[in-house]
Amino acid sequence: MKVRRAISTAVAVIIAVIITAAVVGGIAYYAALVTAPAPTPVTKTVTVTQTVTKTVTASPSPSPTTTPTKPKPVIKEVLIGLVEPLTGAHAVFGQEAKMAAELMVDIINKELGGIKSLGGAKLKLVVEDCGESPETGKLAAEKLVSQYHPPIMVGAYISRITAGVAEVTEREKVILVMDALVDELTEKGWKYVFRVAPKASAHGKSAADFVIDMAKKKGVKVESAVVMNEDSIFGRYVANGAVIELKKAGIKILDHLEYPYDISDATPLVSKVKELNPDIVISVPYFHDGVLIAKTVAQMGFKPMFIAGAGACGYTDPDSIKAAGKAVEWYTNTYSYNPARPTEWNKKVVSMFKERYGKLPTEAGGIIFYSMMVVKEALEKAGEMFPDDPLNPDHLREAFLALDLNDKNSIAAQLYPTGRIKFAPNGDNVYAGTAVLQVIKGEPRVVWPDAEPGLEPIFPRPDWPGK
Amino acid sequence: MIDPAYVTQILINGVLMGLLYSLVALGLALIFGVMDIINFAHGDFVMLGAYLTFLIATYFLIDPTVTIALTVPLFFLLGIAVYKAIIKPVLGAEPLIQIAVTVGLLMFLRNLALAIFHAEPRGVPYTVFSTPITIGPITIPLSRAAAGAVSLAVLYIVHLLLTRTRWGIAVRATADDREAAALMGINVERVYYTTFGLGTALTALAAALIMTFSRADPYLGLLYGLLSWVIVAMGGLGGVVGVLASGLILGIIESFGMSLISAGARELFLYVTFLVVLWVRPRGLFGRR
What we know:
The complex is a heterodimer. Chain A is built from 13 helices and 16 strands. Chain A is of the alpha/beta class. Chain A has 2 domains: 73-198 and 341-422, Rossmann fold (3-Layer(aba) Sandwich); 201-335 and 435-448, Response regulator (Rossmann fold, 3-Layer(aba) Sandwich), CATH 3.40.50. In chain A, helix 2 crosses helix 11 (363-385) and helix 3 runs parallel beside helix 4 (159-171). Chain B has one domain. Chain B has 11 helices and 2 strands. Chain B has a two-stranded antiparallel ribbon. In chain B, helix 5 (142-164) runs antiparallel to helix 10 (239-261). The longest helix of chain B is centred in the N-terminal third of the chain and has 32 residues, at 4-35. At the A-B interface, helix 1, strand 9, helix 7, helix 8 and helix 9 of A face helix 1, helix 2, helix 3, helix 4 and helix 5 of B.
């Protein structure tokens, strides 16, 4: 009997091992398939031999006859701190931001000859990982400040981490160019923060503007709308931006629904929207709920005039399209960057990025493209306005505020969806706006405000039965 | 005045989802009822099943519901393996140790999914159950109707298994008194591993149904695990009927709450219901002991 038991235990253990191996192996095989050859991240070890932005004062003149003049600083290098989530849950964004920043620094230094007004000073990137939380973000910022004290920092994509970073940069009087979108960040009275990217509410506003603009072009009348969002602070800001813009246009908001993004079932939600029967729906999803909502809308046969997404998460990203298939056809979403914008420099930067890293830039990289170029423009301006002390934080702030960029006078604006950049005193871009992507035949395509060549937004939804 | 058709719609939504919730919780109820062990990783088996459904369905380009032919037997074996490897050594051990073991399994599965699939949702972009059934003003997504019908059928089958077969009698006897059952000649060990296997296999079935309308993500386990626990605790040890009743109650309350009050307070409705039920009947709706 003992032998039999031993055999059966052995068999069970073997089966267990085989099944576990098969499951893990299968999953790993799949993972190997999906994670296509990832570009090897360029890890640069930054040696701590340099001091702060090098200011070499002219040596005292040996000749006693010259009149004493104030020594003019010679700046050879301007350090730019980059704080991004390079590890953890948000690493995908941080890694791409780092790639984009490295590319832009190379373009600025090599192709554009550095900062001309500072005698061709070169930019040098110092990078720090801000991890996953506001605390680690703060630590990263502290580390950069104590080691290098860069005059300008860029980061940190995730809004709550950025808030942690900003606490340090404000205290240390370091300019922070934020690539995070929650409105709040520019509402705290911080003095040294700037944000080129469209904030959350600008995403909602753009989604509404897109629908209103298309309805006008196609001669259909939009009278009512339902706005719904996942109930994070970001989702709420985006949705509020849409609500305000729709109300301004005289469109009746039948309801504004909020829900947790990890809902298991969207039928109660979609049933409700269907019952309200609005002309259009503006939806601010996260990724998971986006798939669920799109599938439920299709499976419940709900056919409104249009469903516009906002907030750059879900519906039109490749993973959501893969997961939801036909259900997300004709859905749109708003993005902080337009890789298809047909300006000279945008085309050039996109192709250089593609050549260097083997993939198209997404939003995380795109925001860095124009943010870094704005940093360059601001440094140029500071050199012109304050030749004696261009890197003083208050002088830099004034230089940022003095910028008024458009497609003709700057590269930065050519990379920006609306083609215009000018900062309000709170640090936000007055001309903030997004690009709209639409799923057309299973592919995300840029359709608004500058559509890809030969492409037109599909509006209203072709399956809309009409009023 | 709320449209009666809309109320009917909400009720149907709730009933269908409640049936599916019952199916998800059934495996946990079986395991807990028989072995007195709290399997915290239950929801994460659902998550694992969802990913497996996704992988198989998209690899062979088959409907997510067809994958059960593979996933259910596989999960039955996986359940037995997990039982033999992890659960058996801690049976009868301190509750704290049992909790540590199953929570460890939960963390392992969740982080495995995060490492491999990252946080992006994965879904099967097609299913034969993609059209709605329309009866007058009421719309029922076929996927949800199918999920509800299959859940009900499986609940009934498991009920029959427990009440009409020798195996079922052995299971119930073991649940009532392990030592007495062993003395009566029941192979308790076999009862345990078959129950654990069945409980795990049911999660694969539920996962396939979920994948007809939803998606897989690493945190799916959190969603269904917690819900299963509430259902089992609410149902008391009332077997299949208790699970069905609690699942339906939660599904209907969730649907009405989300539709008529606030979609944002979904979990509030679920857990307030849970607390109220346990306050009124501390041993659950069908508590015996």
